[in-house]
Amino acid sequence: MIKDKLSQVLKEIFQNCNYEIEDITVTVSNRPDLCDYQCNDIFKLSKKLGKSPLKIGEEITNLKLDIIDQTFKKFEFVKPGFINMTLSDAFINENIKAINTLPKFGVQEGPQETYVIDYGGANVAKPLHVGHMRPAIVGESIKRIIKFMGHKVISDIHMGDYGLQIGQVIYGLKQEQIALEDININLLNRLYPLISAKCKEDEEVKEICATITKELQDGNPEYQKYWQKILEVSKADMKNLYDFLDVHFDLWYGESDAYAYLDAVQKMLEAKNLLVKSRGALVVEVQKEDDKKEVPPLLFQKSNGAYLYASTDLGTIYQRWQDFKPNHILYVVDNRQEMHLEQVFRVTDKLGLLKYQDLEFLGHGTVNGEDGKPYKTRNGDAPGLETLFAQTKEIFKSKKAENENMSDEDTNKIVNAILKFADLQNSREKDYIFDLNKFSDVTGKTGPYILYTYLRINKIIKELNLKEVNLNDIIYNDIDRDLRLKLLEVSHALESAFIERKPSYIADYLYNLAVCANSFYSHNHIMNLEDSEKQKNWIYILTLTNKIIEELLDLLAIKIPSKM
Ligand code: ARG
User: Which of 213, 354, 423, 550 is the most exposed place for a label (fewest CB within 10 A)?
Assistant: First the structure.
C-alpha cells in the first residue's frame, strides 16, 4: 500500500517535469540511516531519454510542489541515480490511521479466484513423523494467507492410501493372524517398519506385498476389508495430530479416490493421441525441445495394468477440475518431487484441463539434524510427531520454573508457536536445522519471543486502560519513529507472502515488528508518562501493533496463550 502510494507521488512529480514513467518501483530503504524509502528508476529514465541521471535528479528535487512537502521530510537525489525519501510525520500518521481503519490493513485485493491447495500428503499406515510437519505447517499457512486475500480456497490432504505400504501392512496382519477388529494404531505403527524392513531383505516377501497391493487395487474383497479398517484407524490418528497443529483440510481424499477418474483421463489421453507404448507400459512423452534437462515420460500404466503415482495425480486433477473448476491448484510438496509434478503438470496442460502456469509446485525443504541430513533420533528413526510434541513441551517447561505451572491449553499453544515459527521463518524451499532448544528460547527469532512481546504490550494497554485513543497529529516523537515505520510495512509483508506463496515474509515481518515494539517500550516510560496526549498516542500505536501481531499470527496458525 505505502509503496504504491509513494510510486503514485513520484509519478506525479515526474509528470511535473514532463517525464512519463509507467511503472515506478519504490522499495523500503536498505540504508535506514539515510532514508526510509528509495527509488532507482532514474537510471531507466535516463537511458530512455539519453539525459544524465544527475540532470533529471536535479530537476525533480528542485521542484516546489505541495505534494512533496506533504509527503516527505526529506526528498533527495543521490549520485549516481537514486532518489532517497524520508517520510513526513503527517504522511506516516495519515497512513497509520488508514492501516488501522481499512479492512485487512489496506492490502490490495484482486478479483476473487478459486484455489485448490494440496498439502499434508501423509501416507496411511505409516506413522507421521517430523518430516510430515513441514508440508502441514507451510500448507496451512499458505491456505490462510490466500483466504485472507479474499479468495476461495479448498484444501485437500491427498493421502497416500493405496500404495505399497498397504500391501505390506496387510501382509503383516495376515502373518500375525490379527482379526479386523483388533487393528489399532500402535499395531500399525509397529508393523509397517517391520515389514518394510523385511521387504528390503527378502525378495519373495517383497513380491507378495506387491501382489497384495495390486489385488487390492483390482478389488479383492478380503483385502478391501482390511484396507477400509486400516484407513479408518490411520485417518483417526492423523486427524488427532493435525488437530493438535490446528491444520484442517476440507477434503480428506486420497490416491484411491482418483481411481474413479482414471478411465475418463485415459479416454482423454487416447483421444488426443498422447498415450505411447513403451516396453509394454503406457507413457506420455513430455520432453520439450527447449528443455535444458531431461524430462522423462510420465508413466501412466504399467505392463501388468497397474496405475502409478502420476496416474493418480492426473485422476485427482480431473476430479478437482470437475468438482470446483479451480483457477489454480497449488502443491506444497517436498522439493524432491519437483520432477514428478513437472511431468503431471505438462500432461494436464496437454489435456486442456488446467494451464501449466496455473499449476504451482511450491516445493519445501527438509527438516535436518546437525549433520545436515533429515532429522533422526539417536536410534536412527525419524521421531514420531507425538514424541516431538512431548519433547517440545518438556524443553519449554525446563526453561523457567513458571512454565511448569502453565495450563495444558496454554502450553499446547506455545508448543505450536515454537514449532511453527521455527519452520515458517525459513523460506519454504530451504532446509533448516532442527534445534528445539534454540526454537523455544524467549529471546531471538522465535515463536515465544513474538508471543511474549504481544503479551507484554497487552499488559501495558490493559493497565493504563485509556479511553478514546485517537492518533493525535501534533504530538510526534522520534522515539517511536522506527515502530511507526514498521507498521507501515504490514501490507508489503502480506502481499509478498501471497504473491510468492511464502509465509516467511510474514514471520520475518512479525519478528522485525516485535523487535521495534520491544525496543520502543523498554526505552520509554509509557506507564508513568506526564504528557497524557503523548501517552494516548503511544497506546494507539501499541494497540495497532498488537492488532497486527494477532492477525498475522493467525495466518501462521499460531494461537496466543493467556499468559507466559
Ligand atoms: N504421499 C506423497 C508422499 O508421501 C505426497 C503427496 C503429495 N501430493 C501430491 N498430489 N502428489 O510422497
Answer: 550
